[in-house]
Design a protein that fits this description.
The strands form 4 sheets. Strands 1, 2, 3, 4, 5, 8, 13, 15 and 17 form a 9-stranded mixed sheet that branches. Strands 6-14-9-12 form a 4-stranded antiparallel sheet, with no helix packed on it. A two-stranded antiparallel sheet has the order 7-16. It has about 300 residues and is α+β, with helices and mostly antiparallel strands. The termini are far apart. It has 7 helices and 17 strands. The longest helix has 15 residues, at about 50-65.
Length: about 300
């Protein structure tokens, strides 16, 4: 196995820069090259403690029913539901949080958008999908997968995920793992729901593409932010600790992206699943339109999405 040197970078925050015309968090050439070569990048301490505290407090208030969830989807961990867990102890994640007044402060954080714009090469940025992930004790693994499996828009190089640790993240509580350079090796591969995994999660059907020996585990501190390409194979382990593993994440796309048909591709099964779930909720909407409905322009004035 080739050894990948994992470095937690800090961005350059120059003085006397006009924030309207220039990014205030500038990635170095080394950082950009690392991301392009390996498919991921970690920036140390990008998000401050006060912001993280407000995000955590918002989640707890929603979990306790103090604040209405609005249009967000509350996803509960089936194994913990079966054990009778409630509240914060049973919620795996909140989905589609980018329209919430508090969670949107992360999704639209200028520091984060500065970094995103440099990775996707665009000043027009759309928030496509967002989550507050709680991962309480007893939560199972998230099998290796590629995020592009869920997205009916391209090109892939114009899409990037940001994943920020709210709590300390380590192997015991189920940190992320990545397969470096996998974004350039396989293209988009077939996914299914593994028999030993949460039914909420899809994973690559051929897990030999994510061998244990090649998994790089991302141990992170609060405020550290991982950014990764949508074709990068990644996942997370089970939370076998006694602590939560909160993180917040958003997938961004360039406003220059365009929708594609997934009919006859490896994505068709998930498209049918999403359409069936929409019908169950009395929404008659197709796969592409479900993404048009959710997308939010967070920088720039025009988007194809």
């Amino acid at each position: 196995m080739e050894i990948i040197k994992i470095v937690k970078y800090r961005t350059i925050n120059p003085k006397n820069v006009n924030s309207e015309t220039s990014p205030s968090h500038i990635l170095s050439k080394e950082q950009l090259n690392f991301y392009q070569e390996n498919g991921f990048l970690i920036i140390n301490g990008l998000i401050d403690f006060e912001s993280l505290y407000n995000l955590k407090k918002r989640f707890i208030h929603i979990a306790k029913g103090i604040v209405d969830k609005g249009q967000m989807t509350v996803v509960r961990e089936p194994a913990l539901v079966a054990k009778g867990a409630t509240g914060e102890d049973v919620i795996n994640k909140l989905q589609d949080i980018h329209y919430d007044d508090i969670f949107s402060t992360y999704v639209e954080d200028p520091r984060l958008l500065d970094v995103i714009s440099q990775l996707i090469g665009s000043d027009s940025i759309v928030a496509a999908h967002s989550m507050l992930i709680n991962k309480p004790p007893g939560t199972g693994r998230h099998p290796p997968h590629q995020d592009l499996y869920y997205f009916p828009f391209r090109p892939a190089d114009k899409i990037v995920a940001a994943w920020t640790a709210i709590d300390h993240v380590n192997k015991e509580n189920g940190c992320l793992f990545v397969i470096p350079k996998s974004h350039k090796k396989h293209g988009l591969v077939a996914h299914s729901v593994p028999s030993d995994s949460n039914k909420l999660y899809h994973g690559i059907m051929d897990e030999s593409l994510a061998p244990e020996a090649e998994r790089v585990h991302l141990v992170m501190s609060p405020g550290d932010t991982a950014l990764f390409h949508p074709l990068l194979i990644h996942g997370s382990g089970p939370n076998v600790s006694k602590n939560y593993r909160k993180a917040i994440t958003c997938h961004y796309a360039s406003g220059q992206c365009h929708y594609v048909s997934v009919q006859g591709t490896v994505q068709e099964p998930v498209a049918r699943e999403i359409e069936a779930e929409a019908r169950r909720r009395n929404f008659h909407i197709d796969f592409v339109d479900s993404w048009r409905y959710k997308n939010k322009l967070v920088r720039g004035v025009k988007s194809n999405l």
